[in-house]
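REQUEST FORM: STRUCTURE PREDICTION
Request ID: SP-0412
Submitted by: Lab K.M.
Chain count: 1
Length (residues): 232
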Amino acid sequence: MITVYPVSLQNHTMEVQRELPHQKQMQKKKEESLLHDPTSVLDSLKLCGQKKDLQKARDLHGRLVRNEMLTKDIYLSNAVISMYAKCGSISEARKVFDELPIRNVVTWNTLITAYIHHGLAHNALESFRHMKSEGFSPNAFTYSCSLKSCDDIGILWKLHTEIEKQCFLESDLALGNMLVSLYAKTGSLNSSQQLFDRLQVQNVVSWSTIMEGHVIEGSSEKVFAYFQEIYM
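STATUS: Completed
RESULT:
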């Protein structure tokens, strides 16, 4: 039995079939036009990362590669690395990093942050070493990221020494507070106390951090003394 559809329905179906390729073409043109607007591309990369949409991330990355965008804009390259890391694919983030013809400090920071985000402390510290060996000077953010992955007192001491040489403690209190905390957590309360005493500025975080260190060591008298100093 042959089913005969009304002419109106047949016409509608034919119109839809004609419109689909046109709509896809228009959508493609719209997406390609966005590639010429760096701000829109960066927003798209950030959105992919936030949504953890790996398939969309790969598609957007592919279009950027085809249009040779990553060889022209280091900021886009850094954003792609960050996007893949947030989408859960650290291997693809590393692949993009390795294929970049040019890198800057932000590129290295992005990779180190990606490793830390995935709990790969060893890889983060290894990247920090490679960064220095390639002649890049770490900034305060680099040290902050590296400290987050540090649980070895020897490495902590080396990072602290470099931070002191760069005079970052004078301009970045957050780094100082982080070091105070890490020394206490790695069992070196004396080093934590000495650094706390040398901080040019101390804020609520500084005081809370050193007090927490003494709590860990069971030094209740010292904690009470600090409490009196702050509030009385």
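NOTES: Residues 169-232 form one domain.
Reviewed by: T.R.
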